[in-house]
Amino acid sequence: MRDWNEIILNRAVREEFTPPDRFPGLIESARGEYNNAIQGNLNEKGTFEMLYNAAREWCEIILRAEGWRTQASGHHEVVFSAFRHFVGDQVEQLARYFDDMRILRHDLDYDYRPGMIFEHELEDMKKKVKMLEKEVLRWLKKNHPELI
User: Fold this and answer.
1) Domain-located, residue 15
2) In a domain, 90, yes or no
3) For residue 26, how far is the Cα from the chain centroid?
4) Residue at 30 is within a domain
5) What is the pLDDT of residue 115?
6) From the centroid of its chain, how far is CA 118?
7) Has residue 46 been placed in a domain?
8) Which string of DSSP letters, residue by residue, matches 40-56?
9) Which range of residues forms the domain containing residue 88?
């Protein structure tokens, strides 16, 4: 993950106001990705992608709540870095987990082979996405209650 100051210096984000009425839809979208993943009708790669998308969307909610938007390549890395930066040290391990999943996602996109993802890893990822959702909602209630 990159340091927030490096992200600013590299102009990987720009300031952008997101209207408060957009946040319920952003939250619903993240929940929808998760729900699609757990329905069980996808292969392991599809399940992974939906869980990953849910995690990325949860982290992007924080970035948007703080008045930023990605604008350069590497935007997935930026949203996970933003989660860590804005929420704080208590989410360091969770942020690093999803940054590792970002790297795995890249490998799956370009070199997928059956067996690259195991069921127990997907079960762990499901739990971590739910942990992430709780952290984001807790943070929003504390820092931007008007958005939920």
Assistant:
1) no
2) yes
3) 12
4) yes
5) 85
6) 21
7) yes
8) S-S-HHHHHHHHHHHHH
9) 4-10+20-147
* Strand ranges in the chain using DSSP code E only, listed in sequence order: 13-15, 68-70
Residue 48 Cα distances to 73, 111, 141, 145, angstroms? 22, 15, 28, 31
- Rounded to whole angstroms, how far apart are CA atoms 106 and 68? 24
| CATH code of the domain in which 121 resides | 1.20.120
**According to the model, what pLDDT value does residue 96 have?**
95
Q: What six digits make up the tokens of 126? A: 């499901």
92-111 vs 119-143: helix axis angle to the nearest 10?
A: 130
Q: CA dist 26 to 7, 19, 29, 53, Å?
A: 23, 11, 5, 12
What letter would DSSP give residue 67? T
Could you tell me the pTM of the whole model?
0.94
Note the pLDDT of residue 142: 97
Query: How much of the chain is in helix, strand and coil states, percent to nearest 5?
Result: 75, 5, 20
How many structural domains are present in the chain? Answer: 1
Per the CB < 8 A criterion, the answer to whether 25 and 127 are in contact is: no
Average confidence (pLDDT) per 10 residues, the chain, 148 residues: 92 96 98 94 93 98 98 92 96 96 90 87 97 98 96
